[in-house]
């Protein structure tokens, strides 16, 4: 009779648990993307369909548009060796592992318990000792304990959903790191080439200044010049020599920065990078639409994933207000002597449905829901702010591109005209038709104009880098690195091959 009752009880509990699982519902709001009204075109540049098609192809490997093989090589090495990029990859692995940890809560959780020792009861109670029962006795027990939490109201589902969004955030964070690294590397490389060109201009001006010293000295020996002109020529030569040193320092510092971006010790690539080369060419103006930028920029995509995670956290907070259903299963033989090890009377087991319902929490659970709702609204607003910031960066980059293009044209003409004026002043001085002060003035003007032109060319190159970075270019086409932790979990536990932990 008792066995029949036990079998019916187990069937009823199983049926009750199954019905709860089948009727389970997920509480809390579901995530819906926030739709922000976007302009149809950029204010600074209205893109044509042809430009959009071209740019979409170029954004995958935009650095190749500068037609510099060394820059292409540096990008490849940075993608493979940059430590910040590897750190971001490990955070993705960590987030995926946490997702698996929350997913495991869907399944029964079991452990094997073994205990033994001596129990002693208090003998100071009024009715103790009871005849035939000693106050101390040996105790041993072993067996599995299994707990299965039924996800009736979706708490576990919401936790897993939130962690999936955390994975998405870490993926987008790695892509943001990729965009930043590419922009820094390209910008440093442009600075290196422009500084090397400035150093060449400085060397040319030192030779000119030395020629002037020689010329003034010869004229003085012929009785045409004077000591003032010799002093002025020497002063200009020493000034040119002094201006060269900061340029050498900047070249060293930039090469060190590039090495760090490549994930290697500063100075490793110094011999290769210090070989002067031509400045890269400025590519065509990239153009796209606002909607494409929203879909492409990693920071915007990451902000959206934060919003999705916050919405899932609301569901977790709401589910805590509902009953919690648990199926505990215990099977533990308990005995005092080894000869009772397999006796039927030693076996103890328990299989019940446990339901815990919060009733008196003093407003704690309601406050948690309200906090989660406020946090979700904050992340939604942060998502919108991220879009505004991104659009500002793109519009600024378009404006700088157009303005710096015109500025570079004017400064190029200024450099050419000032060099012509310097050459003419030197010829007139040799002929005795003008003073040495005119020669110095025109040479200084020519040097200043040449440096200004080089800096304007650098600004145009960096405008291109900034615009591609603002468009979120560079991460598409580069797969996520597949890295593994150095610890092999199967070697840490002899039971790992038999049980998944």
Description of the molecule:
This is Outer membrane protein OprM. It is found in: Cell membrane. This protein has 501 residues and is of the alpha+beta class. It has a domain at 38-115 and 158-322 and 386-479: Outer membrane efflux proteins (OEP), CATH 1.20.1600. 60% of the residues lie in helices and 9% in strands. The protein is built from 11 helices and 6 strands. Strands 1, 2, 3, 4, 5 and 6 form a 6-stranded antiparallel β-sheet that branches. Helix 4 (83-103) packs antiparallel against helix 5 (155-221), helix 5 (155-221) packs antiparallel against helix 6 and helix 5 (155-221) packs antiparallel against helix 9 (298-319). It is elongated, with a radius of gyration of 38 Å. The model is unreliable at 1-6, 8-23 and 485-501 (pLDDT under 50).
Task: Put the structure in a nutshell.
The chain has helices at 2-22, 49-58, 69-81, 83-103, 155-221, 227-261, 270-273, 290-296, 298-319, 364-430, 436-470, and strands at residues 109-120, 136-150, 324-331, 334-335, 349-351, 354-356. Helix content is 60%, strand content 9%. The longest helix has 67 residues, at 155-221.
In DSSP terms (H or I, runs of 4 or more residues), the helix count works out at 11
The coarse overall form would be: elongated
Radius of gyration (Å): 38 Å
The biggest sheet amounts to: 6 strands, antiparallel
* CATH-defined fold name of the domain at 38-115 and 158-322 and 386-479: Outer membrane efflux proteins (OEP)
Beta-strand percentage? 5-15%
Class based on secondary structure composition and strand pairing? alpha+beta
- Which homologous superfamily in CATH is the superfamily of the domain at 38-115 and 158-322 and 386-479? Outer membrane efflux proteins (OEP)
Instruction: Supply the CATH class of the domain at 38-115 and 158-322 and 386-479.
Output: Mainly Alpha
The chain-level mean pLDDT equals: 82
How many strands in all? 6
> Helix content range of the residues, please?
55-70%
SSE series: HHHHEEHHHHHEEEEHH
Straight-line distance between termini: 40 Å
Low-confidence stretches: 1-6, 8-23, 485-501
CATH architecture of the domain at 38-115 and 158-322 and 386-479: Up-down Bundle
Protein name: Outer membrane protein OprM
Pfam families: OEP (PF02321)
Family: Belongs to the outer membrane factor (OMF) (TC 1.B.17) family.
Keywords: Lipoprotein, Membrane, Palmitate, Transmembrane, Transmembrane beta strand
């Amino acid at each position: 009779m008792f066995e029949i009752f036990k079998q019916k009880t187990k069937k009823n509990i199983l049926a009750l648990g199954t019905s709860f699982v089948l009727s389970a519902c997920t509480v809390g709001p579901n995530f819906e993307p926030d739709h922000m009204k976007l302009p149809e075109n950029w204010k600074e540049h209205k893109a044509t369909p042809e430009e959009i098609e071209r740019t979409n192809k170029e954004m995958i490997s935009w650095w190749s548009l500068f037609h510099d093989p060394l820059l292409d090589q540096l990008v490849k090495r940075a993608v493979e060796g940059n430590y910040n990029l590897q750190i971001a990859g490990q955070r993705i692995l960590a987030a995926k592992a946490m997702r698996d940890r929350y997913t495991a809560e869907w399944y029964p959780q079991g452990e094997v318990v073994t205990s033994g020792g001596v129990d002693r009861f208090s003998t100071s109670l009024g009715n103790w000792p009871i005849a035939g029962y000693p106050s101390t006795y040996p105790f041993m027990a072993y067996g599995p304990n299994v707990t299965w939490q039924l996800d009736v109201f979706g708490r576990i589902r919401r936790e897993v959903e939130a962690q999936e969004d955390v994975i998405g955030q870490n993926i987008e964070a790695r892509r943001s790191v990729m965009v930043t690294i590419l922009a820094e590397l390209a910008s440093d490389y442009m600075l290196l080439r422009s500084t090397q060109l400035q150093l060449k201009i400085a060397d040319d001006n030192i030779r000119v200044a030395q020629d002037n010293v020689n010329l003034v000295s010869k004229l003085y020996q012929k009785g045409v010049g004077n000591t003032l002109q010799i002093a002025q020529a020497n002063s200009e030569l020493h000034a040119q020599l002094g201006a060269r040193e900061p340029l050498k320092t900047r070249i060293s510092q930039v090469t060190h920065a590039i090495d760090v971006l490549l994930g290697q010790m500063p100075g490793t690539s110094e011999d290769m990078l210090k070989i002067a080369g031509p400045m890269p060419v400025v590519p065509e103006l990239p153009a796209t639409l606002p909607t494409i930028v929203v879909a492409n920029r990693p920071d915007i995509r990451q902000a959206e994933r934060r919003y999705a995670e916050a919405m899932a956290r609301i569901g977790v907070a709401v589910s805590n207000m509902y009953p919690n259903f648990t199926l505990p299963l215990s099977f533990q033989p308990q005995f005092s002597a080894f000869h009772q090890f397999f006796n039927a009377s030693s076996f103890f087991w328990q299989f019940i449905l446990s339901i815990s319902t919060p009733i008196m929490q003093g407003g704690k659970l309601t406050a948690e829901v309200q906090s989660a709702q406020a946090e979700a609204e904050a992340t939604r607003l942060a998502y919108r702010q991220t879009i505004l910031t991104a659009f500002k960066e793109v519009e600024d980059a378009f404006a700088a591109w157009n303005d710096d293009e015109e500025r570079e044209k004017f400064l190029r003409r200024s450099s050419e005209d000032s060099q012509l004026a310097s050459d003419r002043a030197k010829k007139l001085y040799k002929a005795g038709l003008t003073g040495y002060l005119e020669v110095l003035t025109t040479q200084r003007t020519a040097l200043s104009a040449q440096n200004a032109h080089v800096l304007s060319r650098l600004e145009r190159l960096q405008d291109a880098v900034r615009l591609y970075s603002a468009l979120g270019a560079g991460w598409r086409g580069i797969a996520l690195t597949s890295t593994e932790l150095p610890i092999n979990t199967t070697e840490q536990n002899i039971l790992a091959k038999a049980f998944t932990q």
